[in-house]
Specification:
Number of domains: 1
Oligomer: single chain
Number of helices: 3
Strand content: 15-25%
Helix content: 25-40%
CATH topology: Hypothetical Cytosolic Protein, Chain: A
CATH class: Alpha Beta
Distance between the termini: 38 Å
Number of strands: 5
Structural class: alpha+beta
Shape: globular
């Protein structure tokens, strides 16, 4: 009998839609309270997920979705890095 694997779903902090974890970008708060973009999705810490679209990014900034998810203030550099991460994906 073939095993049907459950696809892990996560909610986007921009559009609030549930999507598969693989197609989203993970923003991570490490145990040292650093905010990093976790490309592997496997690092330890509290993660927030966002769709790789400019629309979701702008919504997340506007409604402070990242701050709420990670329970801390987000430095401007993190937003800039995230925006750079999203641009090449949108261009494809």
């Amino acid at each position: 009998m073939s095993q049907v694997r459950k696809v892990p779903m996560r909610q986007c902090i921009g559009c609030r839609e549930m999507k598969s974890k693989k197609e989203m970008i993970r923003i991570l708060k490490t145990t040292e309270d650093e905010i990093v973009i976790d490309a592997t999705g496997k690092k330890n810490g509290r993660g927030a997920y966002i769709c790789p679209s400019r629309e979701c990014f702008q919504k997340a900034v506007k409604n402070k979705g990242i701050e709420r998810s990670l329970k801390m203030a987000i430095p401007k550099e993190v937003y800039e890095a995230l925006e750079k991460e999203i641009e090449p994906i949108e261009a494809e």
